[in-house]
């Protein structure tokens, strides 16, 4: 029996609601948000998010809770199975990534150590 591959990323209700607010404010200029990872920070990698005006040929397109997320092809194995959340508290707000491939994070929370997902 073949194992089903998990979605590259899923959204919590809070993340989906915030994403819908952001997209509504763009007045249709963007088709979604592209998520990726890049080298940086003291733990080795940082998550990236940017508006997407078009789907790139190799993007992984994920539709979850009526939100379109585009995954940079170089980031797929690092993000596989990740849940994206949105949190607000008294001093800060922002998107958080609950990533099963993350093995460590720096003290300030700006960068992470991520290993590629395995089959």
Characterize the structure shown.
It is a single chain. With 119 residues, this protein is mainly beta. The model has no long low-confidence stretch (mean pLDDT 85). The chain has helices spanning 13-25, 76-79; strands at 9-11, 32-40, 44-52, 60-64, 67-71, 82-88, 93-98, 102-105, 112-114. It has a 4-stranded mixed β-sheet. The chain is built from 2 helices and 9 strands; from the N terminus they run βαββββαββββ. A hairpin with a 6-residue loop joins β8 (102-105) and β9 (112-114). The relative contact order is 0.24.
Low-confidence stretches: none
Q: Tally the beta strands.
A: 9
Q: What value does the Rg take, in angstroms?
A: 14 Å
Going across the major beta sheet, what is the strand order?
A: 3-2-5-4
Please count the helical segments: 2
**Overall mean pLDDT:** 85
Salient structural properties:
119 residues, mainly beta, 3-stranded mixed β-sheet
Write the layout of secondary structure elements.
Blueprint: E1 9-11, H1 13-25, E2 32-40, E3 44-52, E4 60-64, E5 67-71, H2 76-79, E6 82-88, E7 93-98, E8 102-105, E9 112-114
Parallel strand pairs: 1-6, 2-5
Antiparallel strand pairs: 2-3, 4-5, 6-7, 8-9
Brief account:
With 119 residues, the protein is mainly β. Helices cover 14% and strands 43% of the residues.
